[in-house]
Specification:
It comes from Aliidongia dinghuensis. This is Glutathione S-transferase. Pfam families: GST_C_3, GST_N_2. InterPro entries: Glutathione-S-Trfase_C-like, Glutathione-S-Trfase_C_sf, Glutathione_S-Trfase, Glutathione_S-Trfase_N, GST_C, Thioredoxin-like_sf. By secondary structure, the chain is of the alpha+beta class. It is built from seven helices and five strands. Strands 3-2-1-4-5 form a five-stranded mixed sheet, covered by helices on one side. The relative contact order is 0.14.
Length: about 210
């Protein structure tokens, strides 16, 4: 498999899940400004949306979108409990969390990371205010869930936790104050301490530094 990714973009989520799954994958870093991978590939020839993550399977099938790729990865990792069994109620609960993180955290944090810096100053400030107004309720919901379990699905790590961890990193990057929810801080430390997560985190840092030097 080949994963087209960009350091600390939402493709980080997929790299975390792949590491936890123990699956072999070749990461090809993409410059999102040019849509070119380090090997010269034009990302839009694989994914017309020109976005990461883009996963190319061994049979050359292409899968995009974080939620879809996460469930595919989890299904390939038999015995790892990264996703509940298909058609079980818990699988639908996982889908609920994936949808929440995608729609209520990923999109809102994207306003602070991507949208606001690219619009006029007045519009940017308005976008930032709205995003920061919406986030406390969303993070409060997550914190309440984590008050009764170590992870989103209870006591075992799933692909939804990979997604949430990525979003907590984004929140820290844009200096959104998470201190009102100590559950989130404890959760972040718990996930960051997992060996597979720590290894990918270090790789992403190295890739970001390398990209900044180009």
């Amino acid at each position: 498999m080949k994963l087209y990714a960009s350091p600390f973009a939402c493709s980080f989520t997929v790299r975390l899940a792949l590491a936890e799954a123990g699956l072999n994958v070749e990461t090809r870093w993409v410059d999102l400004a040019t849509k070119r991978a380090q090997d010269g590939t034009d990302l839009t020839t694989l994914n017309p949306k020109g976005q990461v993550p883009t996963l190319v399977l061994d049979d050359r099938a292409v899968l995009t979108e974080v939620g879809a790729i996460l469930q595919y990865v989890g299904d390939q990792a038999s015995g790892r409990q990264l996703v509940p069994p298909a058609t079980s109620f818990e699988r639908y609960r996982l889908q609920e969390w994936l949808s929440f993180v995608a729609g209520e955290l990923h999109k809102i944090l994207s306003v602070l990371l991507i949208i606001a810096p690219t619009v006029d100053p007045a519009g940017a400030e308005s976008a930032r205010r709205l995003a920061r107004h919406l986030l406390p309720q969303r993070f409060g919901h997550v914190a309440r869930a984590l008050s009764t379990g170590s992870f989103l699905m209870g006591e075992y790590f799933t692909v939804a936790d990979a997604y949430l961890f990525n979003m907590l990193i984004w929140a820290r990057y844009v200096e959104f104050d998470l201190s009102p929810w100590p559950e989130l801080g404890a959760y972040f430390d718990r996930v960051a301490a997992r060996p597979a997560i720590a290894a990918v985190f270090a790789e992403e840092r190295e890739a970001r530094v390398a990209a900044q030097r180009r």
